[in-house]
Amino acid sequence: MSKTDQFKKVIAHAKEYGFVFPSSDIYDGLSAVYDYGQQGVLLKNNIRNYWWKSMVQLNENIVGLDAAIFMHPTTWKASGHVDAFNDPLIDNKDSKKRYRADVLIEDYIAKLEGKIEKEVTKAAKRFGDSFDREQFVSTNPRVVGYQEKASAISARMAKSLEAEDLADVKALIEELEIVCPFSGSKNWTDVKQFNLMFGTKLGASADHATDLYLRPETAQGIFVNFLNVQKSGRMKIPFGIAQTGKAFRNEIVARQFIFRMREFEQMEMQFFIPPGTQKEWYDHWKKTRLNWHLSLGMGEENYRFHNHEKLAHYADAACDIEFKFPFGFKELEGIHSRTDFDLGSHEKYAGKKLQYFDPERNESYTPYVLETSIGLDRMFLAVLSHSLQEEELEDGNSRTVLRLPAVLAPTQVAILPLVKKDGLPDIARDLVADLKWDYSTAYDEKDAVGRRYRRQDALGTPYCVTVDHQTLEDQTVTLRERDSMEQIRVATKELPQLLDAKLNLKNWLTNPKD
Ligand code: ATP
């Protein structure tokens, strides 16, 4: 199946099974805005919880916060968003389609990377077991050529964007002969900067209304509360403040489903540290966050770090954790060493000291900050797209299965009476009544049991419990596992223990997955 078809399948599956709907669907949707359905909201909550517990509950020195979406307008002056939260946009004059100039160039680089991968696959086939990937990519003239070209393009783009030399960004697009993906035309406008913040007004009277912005990131709510939390919580540096919540960006191009939305949710953590220790904490959080991803068992090969060449105005080091989405490796999470830029700037604009007295150093300073920032919706897409599989079965049939990490599944266990009579539904209902306190459960008695298994497979339910006539005799049930489709007979009273071993958070977050 092609990558495009695979992605289309993910979007169709998300709608058909109640995960994600276009916003205002009956009015034909709203561009790059989506609603989460009855299954989606559960998966989203579970991902948020998995993040929150691993960040806040398991770290003595990280606390939570829920700051408002509306913030004093000066916040965005101080943070640099009013002046610098821009993306370079370019229009194609023939198709009238609008693009992010940097994304057009990045897509060109991704094509070069695709060519490299093709060469590697060909060579791996040719050389068999003796193939040494590292040696091949560092010596094969064609691959080296592609790599050099990709690095040169990337470096030039970073330099031009840094210097705000938008004419050179356009020149690069023209030199590379990049065409509009829609029309194939090379007829481009100049590149312009476009501010991504949504404006709104606070107050009932038009004369006295204050201009506000919808927050484009949750981080600033944390910075402006730094002292409130530090003092009221008697926090000692190093410590972190974590927050999840909505953010809004008027994205220039938003056509990759929930990958790039105009209203989305972030899960961010700002870690306050002494100046000079940022390198050490940057490495620490890179490792910790990658391990969090790996704990879900979605394959080490699907993640990679990407270092930023063009650093944001606030950063002295930054990288992304990229994930292999159906449309290639793309940013899933950012890890940024933000220096004392934010606190320092708020100090200036607010005219209030945002300093910390460090008893160990016996001095006051403006703390440095290490940030981890992940999009909840992007994480949702990573999990959903990785999990959706079409599988050929031994009997010649096929099934659609959503191999969600069991700890995140919307329904953890479905209880199915084999038939709708002979008292089996009553036993099944009793089981639901018992298990639902600890697990998210579903009850289903409609259709043949095989069809019900298929439906639960498509919803990503990791375990099904079937109550049959034997249950009446010996209080045992069939426990069916989604991925292997293996069925074992277990005593009903052993179910809680068995499910706990498979689903408890400690096992997921502490055991390395293969
Ligand atoms: P991109 O380069 O993809 O525009 P970014 O570098 O601007 O992203 P950050 O400002 O670092 O993103 O935001 C942190 C995280 O928030 C990203 O890693 C991503 O997961 C998520 N995110 C950012 N913009 C969006 C969006 N428009 N829709 C969904 N998630 C987003």
Structure description:
With 514 residues, the chain is α+β, with helices and mostly antiparallel strands. The chain has 3 domains: 243 residues, BirA Bifunctional Protein, domain 2, CATH 3.30.930; 99 residues, no CATH class; 110 residues, Anticodon-binding domain (Rossmann fold, 3-Layer(aba) Sandwich). The protein has 18 helices and 23 strands. The protein has a 7-stranded mixed β-sheet. A hairpin with a 5-residue loop joins β22 and β23. The longest helix has 27 residues. The structure holds adenosine-5'-triphosphate. Adenosine-5'-triphosphate binds next to β10, β13, β16 and α13.
Q: Concise description?
A:
This protein has 514 residues and is α+β, with helices and mostly antiparallel strands. It folds into 3 domains: 37-87 and 194-385, BirA Bifunctional Protein, domain 2 (2-Layer Sandwich); 94-192, no CATH class; 401-510, Rossmann fold (3-Layer(aba) Sandwich), CATH 3.40.50.800. Strand 4 and strand 5 (98-100) form a beta hairpin.
Features:
binds adenosine-5'-triphosphate; 3 domains; BirA Bifunctional Protein, domain 2; Rossmann fold; globular; 514 residues; five-stranded mixed beta sheet; seven-stranded mixed beta sheet; alpha+beta
Q: Tell me, rounded to a whole number, the average pLDDT.
A: 94
Overall geometry comes to globular
How large is the count of helical segments?
Answer: 18
CATH superfamily of the largest domain: Bira Bifunctional Protein, Domain 2
Q: How many separate domains? A: 3
- Low-pLDDT segments, ≥5 res: none
Helix content class: 25-40%
What is the CATH third-level topology name of the largest domain? BirA Bifunctional Protein, domain 2
Tell me the CATH architecture of the largest domain. 2-Layer Sandwich
Q: Compute the gyration radius: what is it? A: 26 Å
Sheet of most strands: 7 strands, mixed
Quick one: CATH class of the largest domain? Alpha Beta
Give the strand tally.
Answer: 23
Biggest sheet strand order reads: 3-9-10-16-13-12-11
What binds here, in terms of ligands, is: adenosine-5'-triphosphate
Strand content: 15-25%
| Oligomerization status of the protein chains | single chain
What distance lies between the first and last C-alpha atoms, to the nearest angstrom? 25 Å
SS content category? alpha+beta
